# Entry
Amino acid sequence: MKKNFQTFALIMIALFSAGFATAQTSGTHFLDVPTVTANSNGSVTVSGSIVGLGNIRTVTIDVDVVISFHIDCYNRRSHQVYGQSDDVYNAHATGSAQVDKNGRANFAVTAWSSSTACQPAPPAGFYSILSNVSSNGGTVSGAGISWSW
# Structure
């Protein structure tokens, strides 16, 4: 009888412990909707806060984003070289954020387009100016949660 009670007690402790570990991380969520900022250099920065992380010390943040912009190319005399077009790039970035004692991680991850220069490669002295930089959608994920726009 004593052995059955001990076995029952061990099973209950194991079940309670497993439920408690799940409950600690089940409240993980973005504090607010993450902010997506299209930068004039052809990159996109995604920032925000993840809360409910419990005792985790560092969280990895992944960003997959579609970046679009228009490239205007100029020659050495600052005359625009016509025939340039809008470009769309898929970009990926990974960053990490420290989790504070309250289980909150603030993050800012920047994804860069693969090219912000005139294409095909221009002669020396040519330069490009980006305009209409925007993010046409993407996903940010970390700590088992994700948000898409």
Summary: Residues 69 and 87 are 6 Å apart (CA to CA). Confidence is low (pLDDT under 50) at residues 12-25. The longest helix spans residues 2-25.
